[in-house]
Amino acid sequence: MLISFMTLIYYALDGNCVTATTGGLKWVKVTVPQFRAPGEPAMLECDYDLGNDTLYSVKWYKDHEEFYRFVRKTRPPAHSFKVEGVEVDMDSSNSTRVFLRSVSIKTSGLFRCEVSAEKPSFSSAQAEARMEVLSLPKEDPQITGVQDQYQVGDEINLNCTSGKSHPAPVLLWFINGNKVTGNSILVHYPPIYFNDGLVSMTLGLRFTLSSVHFQGGLMKVKCIASVSPVLWRGDRESIVQSLPIKDMREALLLVTSSKGNLVYPAAALIFICFTFKVVPFL
Predict the structure, then answer these.
(1) Fewest 10 Å CB contacts: which of 90, 128, 137, 199?
(2) DSSP string, 239-261
(3) Hey, which residues does 203 pair with through a beta bridge?
(4) Is 240's pLDDT higher than 80?
(5) Are 178 and 111 members of one domain?
(6) Which of 80, 114, 133 is the last residue of a domain?
(7) Same domain, 91 and 13
């Protein structure tokens, strides 16, 4: 079997794509902002080493839909195509970069750059990277279902509902500072999607009240809503665990005891907001 040339393509998580050919197109690298807020611009960069080849075209795709094409021999060489969430500034775009005027929630996705060479090699290579547009919740989570008073043996039946955000917020319940992990007392509700692309979540908490729930005559029930960005990991998405980009808001319910009887009044419902500043990945 005769093989005129061999091409080896390697994909890396950081957007690198390396190719090896005989003196031709060597590599392509994509650089996009990992995170943007709605309304901000974004610069998408596609660097490449043609080796001895001559450039034929550069094409950009978002989630497999082409939105920008640069063909060196055409006049004009650059063209854009309508894709939801993508608004190209043609005056600021060329064969190595594409400038997006104003991003929205629908801009989030996987961006791919494909570089092709002229004859005689006709070689091509591509690289991709993910950009996520983050919209942090403006409202604190809300705890509902609180009764005026409780008695040992009563059923605690609470719901925590987050504010709207993107990506979807993650809700956690805590009792006296201990994270609730048992699915037997957690009630998962389907997410609520809004027309603007934002999402709200609700998580229920169900358990029977007992005297062991009170520490020094006080029980603290807390709900925390957090938003964590995601990175593309092959064929799946993974929550970023090690990087400090997180917005957290919490609601705190204090239930105090009354000595001498079994009635515990829900004396205070206090909403406390802790907002953590978004810090760019380094």
Answers:
(1) 90
(2) E--SS---EEEEEEEEEE--TTS
(3) 160, 188
(4) no
(5) no
(6) 133
(7) yes
Cβ-Cβ contacts under 8 Å for 195 (sequence gap 6 or more): none
Q: What angle do CA 87, 89, 94 make, to 5 degrees?
A: 120
How many Å apart are CA 103 and CA 41, to the nearest integer?
A: 6
91 and 71: one domain? yes
Q: Which domain holds residue 102?
A: 8-133
pLDDT by residue (tens digit) across 124-181?
999 999 999 998 888 888 999 988 777 788 899 999 999 999 888 899 999 988 999 9
Q: Are 111 and 223 members of one domain?
A: no
- Residue matched to tokens 């009764």: 147
Tokens 């034929």 sit on residue: 56
Residue 3 forms part of a structural domain? no
CB hemisphere CA count around 264 (13 angstroms): 25
If asked whether residues 129 and 165 sit together in one domain, one would say no
State the Cα–Cα distance between residues 262 and 144, nearest whole angstrom: 23
pTM of the model: 0.68
